[in-house]
Design goal:
The chain has 6 helices and 6 strands; from the N terminus they run H-E-E-H-E-H-E-H-H-E-H-E. The protein is an alpha/beta fold.
């Protein structure tokens, strides 16, 4: 079964390449573009769900944010709301807007919020996910949730 899912995902991606279009969604999932990973995820990342991306350590925080930005680009329609804790901004740096533009994330599609602490980020995120115009919500916290106490 798994091999047939991998083969089908690869075929779907190849047809999209031949037709000159980017395949971004299929029945409620965001396709990442790697047949093996997409197959492991049942075709891609399910929409309307929570997905977590963790950096191995502080030095990898910007790489994790970049990976999240690439997933966001494939995610489809609606505004992107990116909420950051101030600690992330201070230690990992700000989002690099020229880089986001190269990923085809325009300022008109992106709302960035910088909040003082993790609890504020989570509270705002809880409100934003209820908004129909928010297509994707990204929250960027500085520490692992297990280390907040």
């Amino acid at each position: 079964m798994r091999d047939s899912v991998i083969a089908f995902t690869a075929l779907r991606q190849r047809v999209s390449q031949i037709e000159g279009r980017r395949q971004t969604e299929t029945s409620g999932v965001t396709v990442l573009g790697h047949a093996g990973i997409d197959a492991s995820l049942g075709g891609g990342l399910e929409r309307g769900r929570l997905h977590e991306i963790f950096a191995a350590d502080a030095e990898d925080a910007s790489s994790a944010a970049g990976f999240a930005a690439m997933i966001v680009r494939r995610g489809g329609t609606g505004s992107v709301v990116w909420l950051k804790e101030e600690g992330v901004q201070g230690a990992g740096g700000a989002l690099h807007m020229p880089g986001l533009v190269q990923l085809d994330l325009r300022g008109t599609d992106l709302i960035v919020g910088l909040l003082p602490d993790a609890l504020s980020v989570l509270r705002v995120a809880a409100e934003v996910v209820r908004c129909a115009d928010a297509g994707i919500v990204v929250i960027e916290l500085w520490r692992s949730p297990g280390r907040w106490t």
